[in-house]
Specification:
This protein is α+β, with helices and mostly antiparallel strands. It has one domain: Roll (Nuclear Transport Factor 2, Chain: A). 22% of the residues lie in helices and 44% in strands. It has three helices and six strands. The longest helix is centred in the first third of the chain and has 13 residues. It is globular and about 50 Å long. It starts with a helix and ends in an 18-residue tail after the last strand. The model has no long low-confidence stretch (mean pLDDT 93). This is Nuclear transport factor 2 family protein. It holds the Pfam family SnoaL_2. It comes from Agaribacillus aureus. InterPro entries: NTF2-like_dom_sf, SnoaL-like.
Length: 120
């Protein structure tokens, strides 16, 4: 599983998203929603290259099991964009079958802010 996740990050580092180690029935879930199918995922990346490519990754934590893994990392694109991410990976037949990605994609609504949090 460790090698499979390493391949995933290596392909992104190289900008080679057409050869990601994902199954035909790949499913990716993130705060943006769920994309089902390898073709749909690759097509989405192709249409939005500016938002998917050009990242560097700083890995903070990794947990590996036989057919699953969790990686916490910071992705940086350019000088002024960074995203702190935790992703769960699930494998089947030596390919990534499913990814569940967790990250914050926007401002916290005023009614959800915790008062005086930054002062504690």
């Amino acid at each position: 599983m460790r090698e499979l996740v390493k391949q995933w990050f290596d392909k992104w580092d190289q900008g080679d998203f057409h050869h990601l180690p994902i199954s035909d029935n790949f499913k990716h879930t993130s705060p943006f929603g769920t994309i089902e199918g390898k073709k749909a995922y690759i097509d989405l990346v192709q249409e939005n290259k500016d938002k998917f490519l050009g990242y560097t990754f700083e890995i903070h934590d990794e947990i590996y099991e036989n057919d699953s893994a969790c990686v916490r990392y910071t992705a940086r694109q350019g000088e002024d964009f960074k995203l702190d991410v935790s992703e769960w990976y699930y494998a089947e037949d030596n390919l990534i079958r499913n990814i569940m990605a967790y990250y914050h994609i926007g401002e916290i609504r005023e009614e959800r802010k915790i008062k005086n949090y930054e002062n504690k």
